[in-house]
Design goal:
Blueprint: H1 3-30, H2 45-58, E1 65-69, H3 70-77, H4 81-87, E2 98-99, H5 105-112, H6 122-125, H7 128-136, E3 138-140, E4 148-150, H8 163-166, E5 167-176, E6 182-192, H9 197-215, H10 218-247
Helix pairs in contact: 2-9, 3-4, 7-9
Amino acid sequence: MTDHAFARMFFARIAIAALGLLLSFGAFAAAGGAVEQAGTDIGDRASLQRGAQLYMNYCAGCHSLKFMRYSRMAEDLGLTEDEVMDNLNLTGAAFGEHVISAMPAGQASQWFGQVPPDLSLITRVRGSDWVYTYLKSFYLDETRPLGWNNTLFPNASMPNPLWEMQGLQRPVHEGVDDIGEPVVARLELGSPGSQDARQFDQTVRDITTFLEYVGEPAALKRQQLGVWVLLFLTLLTFLAWLLKQEYWRDVH
C-alpha cells in the first residue's frame, strides 16, 4: 500500500468515526437533551450498600442483572452471605446465582408492551449521568397507558418506581412541537413524597452508583490496585535515579 493510499484510508476512518460521534450526539439529544451530574463515587461503600438495597426493593422486581451474582455482590460490597440472602435476595435464588427478576416475560410484555430490559450494562451504555437524570424525570401523564411519562426519555413504557419517595411531578407546558404535541418546559412537584429534594437526590445517586458498579465490578479492584501501582512506579523511579547516579559517578 502506497503512502497516499494509506493516508486516504486513515482520514476516511477518522471521518467515519466523527460521523458516528455526531450521530450519537443527535440520538442523545432526541432522547431528551441535557442531563444532570450524578456525582457518583463507587469507592463509597455505604452508597453502594444503600443502592443495592434500593435497587432490590424498587427495581429488581422487573429488571434483572444477569451478569451479577449475589456472591460477588457480597464480596465487593463487604456484606455477609446472611445479609445478602436476608435483605437483598427477594427471589429465593441460590447465593451463587445471578440476579434475575422473578417477573414472567410473557406477562411483562403484556403489561408494559415489552419485556423490561436487563440493567447490568445500563451505565456503560447510557452513562451514569443519564441514569441519574432519568430516574428524576418522571411526571404524571394521563395520555399514557401507565399514567407516566419522562422528560429525558419520552414515552418510555415504565412507571415511576420511586414516586412514593419523590412525590408526584406534574408538567408545565409551553407551546407545541412540530407535530402538535405540548412541550414540557419544566416539572413541578404537585404532591410531596416521603423525602425532600436533597434526600431524594441522594437516593437516586445511590441507585446510580450501584448500577455503575454492576456495569464494571472490576473498577473497585482497579482503584485499589492503582494505588499500589503508583507506589511501585515511584519506588522504581527512585531506584533508577540511584542507578543513574552510580553509573555517572566516575564520569563527573
